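call fold(seq) -> tokens
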Amino acid sequence: MIVIGSGVMDTSVVLVAGLGEHTVAEEVWRALPGAVLVRHDLSRLADGIVRRWVDGVSTELRLAHGCVSCTMRHDLLPLLRRLDGPVVVHLDPALEPEAVCFALMDEPVRVEAVVTVVDRATWPADAMGGDLLADRGLGAAAGNDRTAAQLVVGQAEFADVLVLTGPEDERVTAVLDRLNPTTARQELAHLDVRALLRSKATKDAELLVLRHENAVLRRQFAGPVRHEPSDRFRFAALSRLVARRRQQRAVFPVAPGTLLTWHRGFIAERWDYTAHRHTGRPPTQAAIRSLVLRLARENPRWGHRRITG
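ret:
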């Protein structure tokens, strides 16, 4: 469980993202007793019209400004404040999970998990293409130049859980290993929602224990903690495996900017060949030096000009 706000939190949220049509949000909803299923349709957002379903009950909303941020500010956030218990939010593709999580930071809501559905049949083309969301009719307002590639890569990179569909593809697996190597993954055909969320809760509990232990140890030091180069290297390397929003929530003992500075320093040091450079004229080979000395001994009248040739 990740607490992203302050105060008493009665509403827990599972965000389900994905570009194509899927039933993962419904599967998660069925696995959570008493949960509420929320879904938005932003296909007519440019006209200021948003359709919303809460447990199947449809409502049409009209917004003064047809933009994604207005949808979150005037509808999604107030709705989550009113709901109690677990809520499963099936995100419209125009609503990116990272932006939603940051919008919830000051709300009495906790995000249990971010689930992203990846269709391996279409994901490579989406991730490497240049189609705009507006060209696909995915709820992009006028002037929005976001691409489908930015959307699907961001969804996969920010996810706590990846649900995979479609035929196996080694390329997709390799890219996901680079984008989000530590996230839990399950096949849609063998989806076990309880196990998926339980493993996520276990990791979060371990993280909270480590955070508290770190806080206790910090209180025992009067001054700032000194990090040796080996410590900096470990923190910088591990930071590449932790999602950006978790870096912001004090997972590491230093600020995210410091981690980035350390990482850049180690990369620069890796490709620094200053120590391998030699100044001045290169040394004479041993064989040539021996030959010159022998010629000088055998021909004492020659002098250096004749030996040089």
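Residues 224 and 251 are 17 Å apart (CA to CA).
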